[in-house]
Structure to design on (88 residues):
């Protein structure tokens, strides 16, 4: 029996093909001088299967969906300009 994984773009819903170059994005924290000055930030990197399994990572099929995700994230930041990094 073989095992296969499938990934779906978190923006458009496209399924990832075997040889496609995809991207990963996640929200991180840019530390300020004090915790109340911490700022959320978004990071983007090329596909790496190991990191594709990490909590909070978004799977993106290309530049258009990466841009859409960034636009949505920026809108959320403008909607709540006093938001700080979430602590877990």
């Amino acid at each position: 029996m073989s095992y296969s994984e499938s990934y779906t773009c978190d923006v458009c819903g496209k399924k990832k093909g075997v040889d496609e170059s995809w991207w990963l994005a996640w929200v991180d924290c840019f530390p300020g001088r004090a915790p109340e000055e911490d700022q959320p930030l978004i990071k983007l990197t090329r596909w790496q299967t190991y990191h594709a399994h990490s909590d909070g990572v978004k799977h993106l099929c290309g530049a258009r969906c990466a841009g859409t995700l960034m636009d949505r994230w920026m809108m959320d930041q403008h909607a709540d300009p006093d938001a700080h990094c979430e602590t877990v």
